[in-house]
Each structure stands twice: as C-alpha cells, then as structure tokens.
Model the fold of this input.
Amino acid sequence: MASGSVPRQSSGISAVLASPYLLLTCAALFWSGNFVVGRALRGDIQPISLNFWRWTLALAILLAVSVEQLRRHHVLLRREWKTVLALGATGVAIFHSCVYLALTSTTAINALLYLATVPVMIVLVSWIVFRDTITFSQALGIIVSLLGALVMISRADIALLRSVRFNPGDLWMLAAVPAWAIYSVLLKRRPATLPHLTLLTATVIAGVLLLLPVYVWRLWSGEVMALNEHTILGLSYIVVFPSILAFIFWNKGVAGLGPNRAGMFIYFMPVFGAVLSVLFLGEQIAAFHVAGALLVFIGIMLVAWRPARPYVQPHVGPCP
Done:
C-alpha cells in the first residue's frame, strides 16, 4: 500500500463528514426529534421553562469547550454585538419559545404546514435584506418541495387542508417562521474569521439573557416544572442534539451553501417526522408518506442542480 493512500482516504472521509449537505440533513433530523420530544414534554414543562432550561444547560456544555475561543475573539464579538444579539433573539429566544408554545395547542398538521414555509420565507427575507436572487431551478425546487411537504402533512387529503382552522398555536407558529428565516439570513453577517462554535456560544448567551426575565416572571407567577425520568431524558436529548449539534451543523451548512439553498433542507423535517413517528409513536408508513418524501427529495435535488460556487461569508473586520 502506498504511503500516501491512508491520508487520502482519511481526507475523503473528512470531506464527506464536512459536507454541507450532510450537515444540514443531520440538523433537520435532530430538529425533527425536538418536535417529538417537545410535544411529549408539554404536560411536564411549560414552554418558556423548557426553552430556558434547554439553552441554559446547553450553554454550560458550550462554555466548557469554547471559553478559550470566547476570550480569543472577545474583541470581534464586542464589535459584532448587534449581530450576535439579533441571532440570539431570533434563533434562540423567539423561534423555539414560539414552537413550544405552538405545540401546546395546535395540531401537528398545522405546525408542520407552517414550518414548511420557512424556506420560502428565507428566500423572501434574503431578497429584502441582501437582494439575493434565485435561479429557475431553485424556484421550481421550492414549489416541488412545498408540494411534498403538503402531501405529507395533509395525508394527500385536500379536504383535510380545507379544514385547517386558526388557533393560538397556529399564530405562534406564524410568528416562529419569520424568526427562523431572519436568523438564517443574519448568518450571512457572520465574520469569516469567527469560528462556528464561538458564534454559537455567544448566540446562546444572548438568547439565555433575553429569556431570563421572562422565565423569572413565569416563576413569580407560580409556574413549576416536574422533574422526573421522563423530563430528564427529554431534556438531555434536546440539550445535546437539537440545541448544540444541530446548530453547529446548520451554521456550517448555511456558510457552505448560503441561506436560500440551505433553507430547502427544512423540508426534510416532515420526512424525518414521519419516520420518528413510526419508531416512537407506533404509526404506520402510508403511500402519502412515500409520495411526499419523494417530492421533497426531488425538490432539494432541483435546488442543488447547478454546481454551487463556494459561498464566501462577508468579511467584517480583521481577526484580532
């Protein structure tokens, strides 16, 4: 065996693991699990408390591994504090609080239907803020993927879509969608020299500080949290996978593909949600699941049809 063969193989494996497509797919999978667990915990932990403790515990882990990076980049973080604060508000405090509030009163069909509009909203916000454009194949991919999501959510029953009615949960999801779109687009403002883990930690710090007064107010109002094996296991999953790994993967994926193309991977969530329902809720895969999943994959392939040019983050100041 040639001496250089092993390094080339390792390099190839590393390239696959670092692929923005794989990273965004894993992020969508972990976030799908967040919806399942969040729904399961709704009787034990109130939405604001769940979001606060989710990110507080995640922050403890992040600080343990990134405190030195925070010190090294503190000048740059202070310079970009407005961007960090906006990311913490939209991606941590607002979006996930709205999702958990929605899951207490809306149906799964409504929540997933609104979530499926996130990529469209990302494209709209990106156009408004940065005047980004989309190609014909990307526009077609949006439409096809949205159709796939609708098939999954409606169980291929048009009458079911017609029966959708607004309730408080629907309104919370309507608030969550633009929050996540703004978060994804704001990632374009991330300085190229700022490591992803450092940005995530700083974002979570900002989000927890914004959540703290609301959480204290909820405690003052008499809110309590049931602490048992069920809640501990659920929180453990939410802290590690949707809160830390998914955000790292999503941020790196957006950096690689840009917000418009990365947003299409949100359409994976109805697909993964169906699989997780089979595994953990005992539901059965039906024909509409297969049809919807196929449309979602076709849509994402259309979005990625043209070879992507390297996505370059705007450079905001030199590395300190």
In short: Residues 229-257 form the longest helix (29 residues).
